[in-house]
Design goal:
There is one protein chain. The protein is built from 8 helices and 16 strands. It is of the alpha/beta class. The strands form 3 sheets. Strands 8-7-6-5-4-1-16 form a 7-stranded mixed β-sheet. A 7-stranded mixed β-sheet has the order 9-10-11-12-13-14-15. β12, α6 and β13 form a beta-alpha-beta unit. The longest helix has 10 residues. The chain is globular, with a radius of gyration of 17 Å. GO terms for molecular function: phosphoribosyl 1,2-cyclic phosphate phosphodiesterase activity.
Length: about 260
């Protein structure tokens, strides 16, 4: 299996719009390309070339172009917040030439909210075909050669879905946008080869994990390697890399890692 980090930044990306010059790098070195972060999304890929996308960030088109990905076997959503779903229309070209819609999966409430906001994607409109056929995760166990497991994670007053994808004895897990570590999360991610984990900043945050919590989850679940993601402008790549244990890697856009 292979992990491809399409985007590793927080909801505003890095650099953030604003500041005195209109481009706010915060504590991040603008000369390090690994500090330029688009909104979070990943792809997991197996040896047969099957690819699963997790989340459709607002930067999806540029992310797929940058990584040369022109085919997806399915899309999974963690939740419906804008930075995780507003690039959904960028799936439209990937529908061309297919015999049917792209399969999509999410938790029940996320399915309901996505259908409400992007009806044309899931039902077609004005002669345009359905882009994605979305289903709940309730009965999903296998897809495109991957074993798929999930759990719900606290995300402030909302919830986000954590995923575990397995293939050929390897496992990649995804835990973004959580604010508390639960027993279900530790059990789901237990012993995984790669855990991609929410790490907004060093200080505590009401709806996201900070650096301490990210490392705590990685250690509690005994992940072989952890990849920090959803990083804000306070998290300089080089400085953060020097702070983390050897088994904890700082994610960056375009990062590829074999499980």
């Amino acid at each position: 299996m292979k992990l491809i980090v399409l985007g590793s930044g927080t909801s505003t990306g890095v650099p953030r719009l604003g500041g005195e010059t209109g481009i706010d790098w915060g504590a991040c070195d603008p000369d390090n390309p690994k500090n330029r972060r688009s909104r979070v999304s990943i792809v997991v890929e197996n040896d047969e070339g099957s690819r699963l996308l997790v989340d459709t960030s607002p930067d999806l088109r540029s992310q797929l172009l940058a990584t040369g990905i022109a085919k997806l076997d399915a899309v999974f959503w963690t939740h419906d917040h804008a930075d995780h779903c507003h690039g959904i229309d960028d799936l439209r070209p990937l529908r061309y030439g297919r015999g049917g819609p792209i399969p999509g999966f999410a938790a029940d409430e996320t399915v309901r909210r996505l259908r409400q906001r992007f009806g044309y994607v899931f039902a077609g409109q004005h002669g345009y075909p359905t882009i994605v056929s979305i289903e709940t995760l309730e009965n999903l166990r296998m897809f495109a050669g991957f074993s798929v497991q999930s759990c719900q994670m606290p995300h402030g007053p909302a919830q986000s879905t954590g995923f575990r994808f397995e293939c050929d004895g390897k496992s990649i897990c995804y835990a973004t946008d959580f604010s508390e570590i639960t027993r279900d999360m530790v059990d789901l991610f237990s012993g995984c080869d790669i855990l991609v984990v929410d790490c907004l900043r060093r200080e505590p945050h009401p709806t996201h994990a900070n650096l301490g919590m990210a490392i705590e989850l990685a250690d509690a679940s005994r992940a072989r390697r952890a990849v920090l993601t959803h990083l804000d402008k306070s998290m300089d790549y080089a400085i953060l890399s020097d702070e983390t244990p050897d088994h904890v890697l700082v994610g960056h856009d375009g990062m590829e890692l074999a499980a």
